[in-house]
Amino acid sequence: MLNNKMEHPEYFFWAAALTALFLPTGAPAPARASDPELEAAASPAAPQLHPFQEMTLRAKAAYVYDVKAGRALFSKDAATVFPLASLTKLMTAALALTLLPETTLIPIEKAAIEQEGDSKLQIGERWLLRDLAAFMLLESSNDAAYAIAAYAGSVSLGAEDRVLGREFFVEKMNERAVLWKLDATRFYNETGLDLQSGEAGALSSAKDVAHLLARALRLFPSVFGKTRLRELPLLNGDGDARPARNTNKETDALPLLIASKTGYTDLAGGNLAVAFDVGFNRPLIVVVLGSTIDGRFSDVEKLVWAALAYLTL
Prior knowledge:
The chain has helices spanning 9-22, 36-41, 89-99, 110-113, 129-139, 142-157, 162-179, 206-219, 221-224, 295-311, and strands spanning 61-66, 71-76, 82-83, 105-107, 126-128, 186-187, 202-204, 231-235, 241-245, 257-265, 269-277, 283-291. The protein is 37% helix and 20% strand. The longest helix is centred in the middle third of the chain and has 18 residues, at 162-179. The strands form 4 sheets. Strands 2-1-12-11-10 form a 5-stranded antiparallel beta sheet, with helices on both faces. α6 (142-157) packs across α7. The two termini are 28 Å apart. Residues 1-43 have low confidence and may be disordered. A hairpin with a 4-residue loop joins β1 and β2. It has one domain: DD-peptidase/beta-lactamase superfamily (Beta-lactamase). By secondary structure, the chain is α+β, with helices and mostly antiparallel strands.
């Protein structure tokens, strides 16, 4: 479980930031009389540790990205390719919202609810794309991901065949990855579920995931921003309310959270990507890949607090 270091962690950050802002820099120290006895008694100050120094993570890869500055604050095997698991759904949502208007009605068909997991979607329901995409991201719903991919792909292809539509959509996911210069990224399905052959449903790097989430937030903030919430009531196309519960149960423990997406499969282990705002519209993104189902949360917590400390140096 994440430990909320303070009741209002943002107060800590802003206080530290403002203190650093108004302290004079480069000013000479005031002259004082020499006192040999005091000088002899004074001990040298202990060297200040860098906030990311000697950090121990369970994750195989990690990346902390300052979006506004366009630079990494921390990197651990961030260019190495690992299974992506449900972080795949970041691209599924972003591509669908690129291909279709957000008010497009997406039908829930039998093939969709046959996917692994049960997010309580029903055959015959219709959802606005923007709401189904938010539902998919929060619940990590494979049913919703399949429905979105099959319908958006078939409409874009100009065909009624949902199987062909889904295949076309996955092709477009890979084309979009190339367009967005996500060079380590490859999609084999829209969910990120492991394939029956024991291969990953998608592959990527921590660095690519950070850039993907940054772009998705910039293009579609109203949809991806909903993933900061622990629970969100959503309506299907018939006006029936469906609560969407976030698979990240620690959303309330991180300061200034903007977005969040979990991922877990046997091959991938525990993955997690979060974005948080350190002020003045300055988002930071933290990604961990190849952690454990619980370790991903503690890994991200360490990196978030280290990033906040780093920015106040």
